[in-house]
Batch of 2 targets.
Target 1
Amino acid sequence: MFVKSLSLMNYRNYETLSLDSFGSVNLMIGRNAQGKTNLLEALLVLALTKSHRTSKDKELISFGKDHATVSAEIERKYGAVGLELRFSHQGKRAKLNGLEQRKLSDFVGVLNAVMFAPEDLEIVKGTPGVRRRFLDMEIGQVQPSYLFHLQQYQKVLVQRNNLLKQAWGSGSDKGTMLEVWNEQLAEHGVKIIKKRKQFIRKLQKWAQQIHEGITGGGENLKLSYLPSFGEAEEEDEAVLLEQFMIKLSQTKDQEIRRGMTLSGPHRDDLAFHINGNEAQSFGSQGQQRTTALSLKLAEIELIHEEIGEYPILLLDDVLSELDPYRQTQLIETFQSKVQTFITATGIESLNASRLQDASIFHVQEGQVRK
Ligand code: ATP
Ligand code: MG
């Protein structure tokens, strides 16, 4: 897919902006704090309806303004689509080709984007919560039904935790209530776990290959799901459901004591091994960075496999950290098939020979000129 134009109004430090004439490789050049990341973020927001930097949509609205809009014209295989998101202090609204969408999930996935930014190192180095967020965002982008189960799961989880927190009297109605929540928790939880395991299995195939390429064959990357119950490889829904229910009944007393749900997809994790060693604890900074990059690049292929089109690639401040050989490698791998947006503080930090044909945009104080 291809972004033909982008318009912003009252978005972060952009009052109004209208950009077109994007090429297949686009460089956004500017000093610090001028609005480069804001531009990439706006594209990602159009893909996901939310930012990678904040969960608070209000932060996207320019200081002192009451609403922001982000819109774009994109070219997909089946034709051109106009996307528009409007953020106000009351919430957000989405339009496709001018038509208001009742469900945001119908909007997500019309534009697909993969972003690689410095903070993605946290997928490897950070807490399990960061990795779950990674899984949820990426799977949700290509499978709207995943988001549905995730939302339902989270609702049930809150209710169930509330019940667990309530002083546990002798009333049997609470026991019955817990049974009801258990069933609903397991129903949605199992769908989430299954989709995550499938995603990881497919991602692994590409990530391993790409990682091997980047490291010149020296490193073998392996991804594995770390479940809070059952075997990592188990993907059969009926088996997972039974295991989840058993686990919940086994830990019932402990959960009541602690007042929270102790197993399920909200407690699961993802592990990376390089040549058999756990990357979070034993990987060097460079190995961790390469692992995160391989994951993101693998996603590009995975999305292509899933929907038959390549997503756009957003590289925020990361290309200049790679040596000229790797920059060239990266650009050449995707140049002809993936529209790419790259930010950097100066053109001199970008050495890849292929960047000579790129479209260059200069970003300064919320204004952009080509
Ligand atoms: P760097 O090279 O340091 O990464 P950048 O060009 O990527 O810089 P951005 O992250 O895009 O910079 O941010 C540019 C500016 O946007 C910052 O000065 C920030 O204060 C401003 N900004 C962020 N949110 C808002 C907002 N809601 N309203 C107005 N300005 C904002
Ligand atoms: Mg930035």
Target 2
Amino acid sequence: MHNEIEKILISQEEIQEKCQEIGAQLTEEYDGRFPLVIGVLKGAMPFMGDLLKRVETHLEMDFMDVSSYNGGMKSTGEVKIVKDLDTQVEGRDLLIIEDIIDSGLTLSYLVDLFKYRKAKSIRIVTLLDKPTGRSANIKADIIGFEVPDEFVVGYGLDYEEKYRNLPYIGVLKPEVYGG
Ligand code: XMP
Ligand code: MG
């Protein structure tokens, strides 16, 4: 698996350090507020796990699976709910956790949905931001790392459902896309 990676963009150590830093910030911001933390499946799963271990105040977790991708590398532009929340969001402080913001279509759809459902506040934390890909007018409140306009895998991010279990963020060798 590792030999299919051309280069590592963000190391395991850098990711863990960043989780510590953002975790401390969230502890301060949400102390005493019992936020509802929403992980966007499947990509946010490793980041959510590592990050929330560093948040030292009470919180509730739920998950949503919203898809604008078909398993390949191109956005279809179409957002659909694969799995909805089990929790009511009305009156809650929401913290959405994402792996990457690219076009921003997924997140702008979610933010509109949660506003419609009368959330008290909505904040977004994303591990990666790819600002060059943006078509929707949306910005994360907390960004781990900015990445260039390249397709990245690892630490939750997949190519055809593979590589999510890599502990770092990297770029695939071109021949991997060929097969
Ligand atoms: P949008 O375009 O709606 O995309 O902001 C958000 C979702 O698209 C996926 N995505 C990627 N997945 N490498 C990936 O493995 C990438 O470079 C990439 N760019 C976008 C991802 O699932 C994200 O949640
Ligand atoms: Mg994906």
